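Thread amino acids onto this structure.
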């Protein structure tokens, strides 16, 4: 088992299950401290290589994931791994796509879809989930059973 994120660390979100995940913007330097063991990168282009395992979700800035079922599979993998690994989600700025993914992760963790954006804005970042269609995506998000 990997030592978890520090709950008060930058960008760390505690889900109702107790799992800790980190959100961040890739345009900022990597925060000091432990590095992820698994990353989910939400970008319109292939992300840079990392020394830890990662997955890429093709997701242009301000929009939605190009492959919704692929996103669901990666989201479930990240949620499962967050039980005992340091998982991070990141996009360019760390708010829109990252906030949307964290809100969907919160739904997967048991937060009602109509409360997930508010949950992420309260516990991760006030400006998370930037566009009306990202908010709508979260409100309509229904996890596919494992």
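Threaded sequence (146 positions):
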């Amino acid at each position: 088992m990997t030592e978890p994120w520090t709950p008060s660390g930058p960008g760390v979100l505690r889900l109702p299950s107790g799992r800790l995940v980190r959100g961040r913007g890739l345009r900022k330097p990597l925060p000091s401290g432990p590095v992820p063991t698994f990353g989910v990168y939400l970008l319109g282009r292939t992300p840079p290589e990392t020394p830890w395992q990662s997955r890429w979700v093709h997701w242009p800035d301000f929009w939605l994931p190009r492959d919704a079922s692929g996103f669901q599979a990666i989201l479930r993998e990240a949620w499962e791994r967050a039980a005992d690994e340091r998982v991070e989600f990141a996009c360019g700025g760390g708010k829109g796509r990252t906030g949307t993914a964290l809100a969907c992760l919160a739904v997967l963790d048991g937060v009602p879809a109509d409360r997930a954006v508010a949950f992420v804005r309260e516990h991760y970042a006030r400006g998370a989930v930037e566009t009306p269609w990202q908010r709508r995506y979260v409100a309509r998000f229904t996890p596919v059973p494992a």
